[in-house]
Amino acid sequence: MNTAIPESRIRRVNRVPVQPRGDHVLYWMTAARRVSYNFALDRAIAIAREHSVPLIVLEALRADYPWASDRIHAFIIQGMRDNAASLERTPIAYYPYVEPRGGAGKGLLMALAGNACAVVTDDYPCFFLPRMLEAVGQRLKTCLEAVDGNGLYPMRATDRVFTTAASFRRHLQKELPEFLASAPAAQPTRKLELPRARLPARVIRRWKPFIPERSQIAALAIDHTVAPAPIRGGADAAGKTLKSFLEARLPLYAEQRNQPEVRAQSNLSPYLHFGHISAHEIFIRLMRRGGWSPERLAVKATGSRSGWWGADRNTEAFLDELVTWREIGFNMCAHQKNYAAFASLPQWAKRTLDDHSGDPRSHTYTLAQFEGARTHDPLWNAAQRQLVREGTIHNYLRMLWGKKILEWTRSPRRAVEVMIELNNKYALDGRDPNSYSGIFWVLGRYDRAWGPERPIFGKIRYMSSDNTARKVRVKSYLERFAE
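The chain above was modelled as a monomer; its predicted structure follows.
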């Protein structure tokens, strides 16, 4: 497979050229927090080779980002431990840094970039990262490149914003094949020949590298009320999760993934969000199982959710989630800055929600009541408790969770605020293009008008706990997440 990086994945953030007299290349790892299958790392290695200079990898973690907590920090730090081990016996210098308090790391990036030939980082379209990247680009006196390693289809390969999954799926079926031949290197540091990098002594004296075994998250200035999730972060755990999915849960996926009482989901979304695993690695390992090759792709792009890949039904169903539904969110966030605002909804959805915003609600709850799972609905409460305890909600019940928040808040705009706050605070895969897709799907994004028109919902698709309980089995789920 070709490991060349498509030009559409590389974005120049500033207009400063590469500095050929620099003494190293800096890879600023922000979203693709992994060593394998990482286009940005591949790009940094290529520049370092071209100029025969060492490579430094900076993986930093701020203390003052929105919703910073023990849960998010623990997951990322577990990944740092894996990255440190993977790079230990390579010529690359790995620099993990965790701020003890907000602002403590100010100046670190500029200190490492001061004598760099170039800085390479991850191109991620969501959360605070785009604003941070643009601000850094304006200050740097060397070239800053952002590399897109988010999905199989480069998010900037088209300027079009897709409004339905069917239209995006049809586009992918026409355009994706040319990109399937390119993938990041599985083992980019294997037999890597570069000058050995050393971290500047003056820098590490001021900003001490983080050593997980000797440091305590409890000492950091972050939210300690959101406990670490029961699942472990990092590339090693991500690989094991993928292996168990392919061997045990994929055969159930098409038929059983919507059943809360059956373990048929991939459980990969937290690892994808934090960049501990690549969509490319998932795709490659998935398709190698069945001896798949691109020759199996259907010739005609119909937009159908099955049949185009030329794979078995479980694989096709999973690929529709991994590629179509995940990457349509990246398409939205990359091209529409107000992706997290009510105003980003389709006109028909805004109109019908506004028309019914004054409708009487049988129940209304405060954010604190939602957060504490103190509603009248046992199934909704169970889903919220799963979110708080485990950092996730079963995918099917997450849709119901959002629909009921819409129904039980004083306005659709307030419903958006509540969903974003709860999801971003507790979900391991929150603060992500895919999770914003889910939140705004509740209010009509990527959907169509439905009838009959209902109070509060208008023409927005309706869901109820009673109907959900009839469609899927929830008895043991309710017992598991009872008070």
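The CA atoms of residues 443 and 449 lie 11 Å apart.
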